[in-house]
Amino acid sequence: MRMSKMINILLLITCLVTISTGHKNNDMPVGLKEEDLELERQLSILNKSPIKSIHTKSGYIVDCIDINKQPAFDHPLLKNHKVQKKPIFERNITEKRVQNSSINPKFILVKFRCPRGTVPIRRTTKSDLIQDKSLFNAHNVTQNGSINKFARVYLKQASSPYYGVSGTISVWNPKVYKGQSSTGYLYVLNGEGDNINKISLGWHVSPQLYNDGETHLYLFWASGKEGCFNMLCKGFIQVDRSYHFGARISKTSTYGGNIIELPLKISRDNVGNWWLKVVDKDIGYFPAALFSRLSTRADEVGWGGYTVTPAGTTSPAMGSGYKPDNDATHASYFKFVKYLLIIGTEVDPLPLMVDTYNDAPNCYGVTNYQKTKKDFGYSLQFGGPGGNCRT
């Protein structure tokens, strides 16, 4: 009798454990499990075994990765790609515009010196991948519940082809809240919609992506539905061992006071690779194989800013938070703006080539100054306070 009672108790416990286990398995939908496994798979590809790891004051980790084992080489289109250390042009192009800037790159950019043969890559977290997907859709102007606003100067498609873009931007730290972002950037573009090919380079404030309200150096690329911010997917090949994308910019401009500048350039070399240059460093490149349209040329280039905010909310500040007023210490600017010819030569835009785009004039402004500003060359201002941008 006693034995029978014990057996019944054991059977009851077994049933309860089975029911409990069943509930746990049903708590997570199958689709969610698959999504979580996919994120883990991406993390295993992006976070390579480091030769050295650096813990930054900003709280994230930078890994020094073997230059020949970085994530880009896991892209199916780059399996046999060999690292190209420098841009290939028909002749050497001397950079004179950097001398016009008073910027000290060591002063504002978090900089590391990875061991020879390695490159610095910000370590990716699962949260980074989730946020990147949302921001990629917003930046790529797809329907994801976000509102984008742009204020930019661009060169008309009728005047193309273009083989790059350059300029020196003033760096700011606009107030941005969770779910919002604010950017100052230059870009090259070919195509539209699902067939868009685009590369952007500049500074970025995005609490959603960086988990802080600081200004960061960023890149963005899209080839159709593929692409990402910074190094959050396979594609970009890093060659410089000091700067890294996603780095915090330690010093930004002050309204009416000290202005911090950052020279930037995107250029296509003779073999079709697109190089990103920050100050005096060719940080790396996008191989031509990644693009269906940009591999040959860009049909639009431009400079300016954009913001993103969730639907139903007011838009954040762009640039300095002030509209253009012809004062370089007030609104954010680009100076010495150029487009590139096929041999890499940088050329001033002609007035008939230039147009402006501003889809929220009550929130932001954009003004093209051409060569009217002393020591600025062809320049422009952009930005504003944001707010309720519905027109």
From TrEMBL:
Pfam family of the protein (one): Neprosin_AP
Domain Neprosin PEP catalytic: 142-390
InterPro entries listed in its UniProt record: Glutamic_endopeptidase, Neprosin, Neprosin_propep
Keyword Signal: yes
Signal peptide stretch: 1-22
Keyword Transcription regulation: no
Keywords: Signal
Transmembrane residue ranges: none
Annotated protein name in UniProt: Neprosin PEP catalytic domain-containing protein
